[in-house]
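User: Fold this; tokens only.

Assistant: Input:
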Amino acid sequence: MAMPLSTVQNDYLNDLRKRRQQVQLYLVNGSRLQGLLVSFDAHTLLLRNGEFHTLVIKHMISTISPAPLEAGQGRFSGADRAARSEEGKARGPIRGRFHVSNSRES
């Protein structure tokens, strides 16, 4: 049996699965599903949302994207966020470090 070739789709799905990142699936009928990508194969995705699992046929999916992070989620803990916030205050406003262009001419 031949090994499947690496594809963009498989690489993307495998990355989302390994990172245990919540995903949003938009189906061709307009429905949106959100959950953790548990597994996938050539024809299906297994999505977990809480204690429920949903088997989704790939043929019915129009878009897959990482779900937006909610408050308190993300790379840094609350303590790290607080430290970064204090560090940012000490350096001053971000406008002082970058060129901000408002080139709206009437």
